[in-house]
């Protein structure tokens, strides 16, 4: 991270020009030494080592050339890591569909298409291909980055449905089993996914270990029919914006504004209905006898305090992680769930553990 207006901001826009400048300085010095080189003379054993490290010496010009090429590999790989996906896998015109929140009788689908015409979606149960229903997809626009949400209702529990659209989307989803048959279910949780990290120049630039091509995953061949048919729910957290984000300066506020739009358009749009329309990034849902509350630990937390000493957040119990409205909603959810005998699951992007409140993570903890 780099400091800007007293805050942490992404460093990519700063370090890449530095890397390029250093590379140009090195090349200039290398060719200057080469042009000024005198008659080759053998020197100490250290000289060939320096030549292999990229320093030009006429007596070891082959080693110097090899060293220069090796030295140039690092900046080239840096630019490959940053720009290969951008130029080789552009996403402006991707078209995809994915499944969001699914209940016993309804399903939410997100579709992206740059087709200017009205898109018609057909869907039918797997056991009866003649029972086709039709619905028009709301017109997409640049404002939503050409994404549209589709709500399908009046479905039957525990049934697989197929769908296709006039824009080329196709896939399937399965409605939830009847409530009395929801004693067992599976959830998969994942976090902090970064394409091609740790970096491997031989890997696909959008590859993620265990789940291929996330971000532009929706246009990737690895975005399989199975993945498209699984309901995906998303929570809002710091990596939508910047690591360990907390509201503070205007610079970070601008980042927040840029980050919240794609989250709303691509993720929240087909999440379970939000508790508050004015604060749509936290929500609750139930599966059988289990009740979930997914927190937003970023948007309404208090400004980070000054640090008077090691491992001290200086909050003195006066700071808030959730804000007043969200905290009230959590309390109501807990009281209601306890009264109804539900198993309560509170989903937090910030670990509620002591070790997270010390060391380098203390400013991103619940402490204070």
UniProtKB/TrEMBL annotation:
<dbReference type="InterPro" id="IPR018946">
    <property type="entry name" value="PhoD-like_MPP"/>
</dbReference>
<dbReference type="InterPro" id="IPR038607">
    <property type="entry name" value="PhoD-like_sf"/>
</dbReference>
<keyword id="KW-0812">Transmembrane</keyword>
<feature type="transmembrane region" description="Helical">
    <location>
        <begin position="45"/>
        <end position="61"/>
    </location>
</feature>
<protein>
    <recommendedName>
        <fullName>PhoD-like phosphatase metallophosphatase domain-containing protein</fullName>
    </recommendedName>
</protein>
<keyword id="KW-1133">Transmembrane helix</keyword>
<dbReference type="InterPro" id="IPR052900">
    <property type="entry name" value="Phospholipid_Metab_Enz"/>
</dbReference>
<feature type="domain" description="PhoD-like phosphatase metallophosphatase">
    <location>
        <begin position="217"/>
        <end position="368"/>
    </location>
</feature>
<feature type="transmembrane region" description="Helical">
    <location>
        <begin position="15"/>
        <end position="33"/>
    </location>
</feature>
<dbReference type="InterPro" id="IPR029052">
    <property type="entry name" value="Metallo-depent_PP-like"/>
</dbReference>
<keyword id="KW-0472">Membrane</keyword>
<dbReference type="Pfam" id="PF09423">
    <property type="entry name" value="PhoD"/>
</dbReference>
């Amino acid at each position: 991270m780099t400091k800007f207006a007293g805050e942490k901001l992404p460093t990519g826009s700063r370090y890449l020009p530095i890397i390029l400048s250093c590379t140009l300085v090195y090349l200039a010095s290398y060719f200057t030494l080469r042009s000024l080189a005198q008659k080759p003379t053998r020197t100490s054993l250290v000289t060939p080592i320096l030549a292999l490290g990229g320093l030009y010496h006429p007596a070891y010009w082959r080693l110097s050339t090899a060293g220069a090429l090796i030295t140039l590999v690092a900046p080239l790989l840096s630019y490959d890591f940053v720009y290969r996906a951008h130029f080789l896998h552009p996403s402006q015109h991707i078209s995809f569909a994915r499944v969001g929140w699914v209940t016993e009788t309804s399903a939410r689908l997100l579709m992206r298409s740059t087709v200017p015409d009205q898109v018609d979606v057909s869907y039918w149960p797997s056991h009866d291909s003649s029972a086709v229903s039709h619905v028009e997809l709301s017109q997409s626009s640049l404002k939503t980055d050409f994404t549209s949400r589709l709500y399908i209702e009046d479905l039957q529990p525990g049934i697989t449905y197929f769908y296709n659209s006039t824009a080329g989307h196709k896939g399937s989803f399965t409605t939830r089993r009847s409530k009395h048959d929801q004693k067992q279910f599976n959830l998969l949780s994942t976090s902090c996914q970064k394409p091609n990290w740790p970096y491997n120049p031989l890997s696909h630039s959008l590859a993620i270990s265990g789940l291929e091509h996330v971000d532009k995953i929706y246009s990737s061949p690895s975005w399989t029919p199975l993945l498209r048919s699984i309901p995906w729910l998303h929570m809002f957290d710091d990596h939508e914006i910047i690591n360990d984000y907390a509201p503070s300066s205007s610079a970070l506020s601008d980042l927040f504004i840029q980050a919240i739009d794609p989250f709303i358009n691509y993720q929240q749009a087909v999440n379970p209905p939000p508790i508050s329309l004015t604060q749509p990034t936290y929500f609750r849902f139930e599966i059988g006898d289990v009740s979930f509350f997914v927190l937003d630990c970023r948007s309404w937390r208090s400004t980070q305090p000054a640090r008077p000493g090691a491992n001290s957040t200086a909050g003195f119990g006066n700071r808030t992680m959730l804000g007043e409205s969200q905290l009230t909603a959590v309390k109501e959810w807990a009281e209601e769930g306890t009264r109804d005998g539900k198993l309560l699951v509170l989903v937090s992007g910030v670990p509620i553990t002591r070790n997270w409140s010390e060391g380098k993570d203390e400013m991103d903890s619940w402490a204070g």
